[in-house]
Amino acid sequence: MPDSAVSPPSLRALLARGDLHLRLAVDEAELPAGSVDRPVRWVHSSDLADPTPFLSEGLVLLTTGTQFASDDDYAAYVGRLRARGVRALGFGTEVVRDGIPSGLTDACLAAGMPLFEVPYRTPFIAVARAGAEAIAADAYARRSWSLAAQRAVSLAALRPDGLSATLAELSRQLDCWVGLFDAAGALRTAHPAGSLADAAVDGVAAEVETMLRRGTRAASTLRVDDVSVSVQTLGRGGNLRGALAIAADDLDHEARSVVTAVVAMAALALEQQDGLGRAIGTFRAGLVQALGSDDPGLARRAARDLFGPLPTAPVVVGLTPAALSRSTAMTEWLEMRAHERRGELFFGRGDDGLVIVVPTGATGILAEIADRFETVVGSSAPTGYDGFSRAVTQARTARDRTATPGVADFTDTARAGLLAALGSEAARTVAAGALAPLQQYDAEQGSALLETLDAWLAHDCSHEATAQALGIHRHTVRARIAQAERVLGRDLSSFSARAELWAALRLAE
User: Fold this and answer.
1) Is 46 helix (H, G, I), strand (E, B) or coil?
2) Degrees (nearest 5) of the Cα angle 129, 132, 136?
3) Is pLDDT above 70 for 273?
4) What DSSP element (H or E) covers 291?
5) Which residues are registered as beta bridge partners of 245?
6) What does each C-alpha distance from 338 to 272, 332, 344, 346, 503 come to in angstroms?
7) At residue 304, what are phi and psi to the nearest 5 degrees?
8) Range in 54-68, 322-336, 421-435, 445-459 with the lowest mean pLDDT
9) Which of 251, 395, 450, 503 sits at a 20 to 30 Å CA gap from 270?
């Protein structure tokens, strides 16, 4: 944060007051670094042997030493003060003792606590008043800084690049790294650029992704690169627009009020962009519908100025599950990737999912989507735009045949055969019903009609080959097939009857 003209309340500030005539009684070089400059919350006086129950952390304590009966009391006394968080000890001389006891000096040095002399002519109330004045002046200066900082970020918000300018001003005011992450968890802008190590940025991004995935407004603090980073989500619960990350230690109330103002402005700016995003999404959906006519002429002309040229054919068409067509995080992530890969990626909302079009050599983006959003993405065979509608159907078929996250390639689905595409729950139920009489007969009679029938069909209905495969006589095979026909009530001499039964056996596997 920018330096203030008012010295912050500290022991050094008190020692600098010439009217108080205070003197540090120990060598500052023998104290822990920064001991004299630590902030002071108040100045208090007490001659109790143990005043700690009545003290708070961050005080400067003044005493005349009446509580010390022997030299053995000093170390324990100073130890209690240090444990309570007392910043420094002031000893009033010439009141009870002529000077500062050497035992107290040694105890303070051993504990790393600054000890200073308050001369007889300086009343304790004057030191306390000086501390109170410094604290009040610092509080006023911080409030003034906060108001000025809020004005500065408000003026920055009026610039054409309002959101980025606001974050740059916040970074300048707090003198720290500030990063804005989009709804997909990707770093959108950072100030100052490159001031936070890549590994630290990755750690913050991982935390942001976790928070955004929950979908509720939240704040979090983590430690990366030896810096405390606070993260605040932006937007409404269920419709988070991103997150703001600030790498700064110990922000006080006034600094946090500036951050709160920026969070509100950033959220508002992102909400305003949401309307534009919906309009662009509707336009993209119209272009997908136009491509579905298998004539890319209109879509090419309409997309050229806003999105750039469509990917060069042959292309691969991907299709996400329908629920992801309403995902703000995925849409914004794809918008960013489409901007980076202008002319190599096009997407838009389809009837039952986001339709993604990439050149055949850039299908890795589909795997990246599936991995990042833990979803399945159907992928068509390579095609020209004159076969776009068929490609969407292929992608849908591949997607619906796969339940686990990843890319479902239609080529693999087609290679699995026609029955794999028919293997719906309804088809399996019908198959089980067709085979039920044989299963029941085998269970009741201890026969093997189902096994024999399956082997018979697998061996092209050859009794001899089936007998060899099962290790039984061919007449036994013939008798079992005849019995199966009676149980099923069907003649298995026709191709259609055999094909239907074979399909039932495959679907029931």
Assistant:
1) coil
2) 140
3) no
4) helix 253-291
5) 179, 231
6) 21, 10, 7, 6, 45
7) -55, -50
8) 421-435
9) 251
Q: What is the pLDDT of residues 119-156, one digit of tens each?
A: 999 999 999 999 898 888 888 888 888 888 888 877 87
The rounded distance, in Å, linking the Cα atoms of 273 and 414 is: 43
Environment class of residue 154 by beta-carbon count within 10 Å: exposed (0-12), middle (13-18) or buried (19+)?
middle
Angle ∠(304,327,403) on CA atoms, nearest 5: 110
pLDDT tens digits, residue range 76-131? 999 999 999 999 999 999 888 888 998 999 999 999 999 999 999 999 999 999 98
Tokens of 92: 């009033």
For residue 237, give the nearest of 218, 219, 220, 221 by alpha carbon.
218
Tokens of 252: 């006080």
The sign of the torsion formed by the CA atoms of 117, 119, 125, 131 equals: negative
CA distance 106 to 208: 50
Question: For 102, how many CA atoms within 13 A lie in the half-sphere containing its CB?
Answer: 0
Measured CA to CA, the distance from residue 400 to residue 377 in angstroms comes to 9
Helices (H) and strands (E) in the chain, counts: 18, 15
| Closest among 138, 113, 127 to 43, alpha carbons compared | 127
Which residue stretches of 189-243 are H helix? 198-214
Task: Yes or no: say if 112 and 35 are a contact pair by the CB < 8 Å rule.
Answer: yes
Alpha-carbon distances of 10 from 42, 60, 70, 373, 494, rounded to whole Å: 9, 9, 31, 52, 101
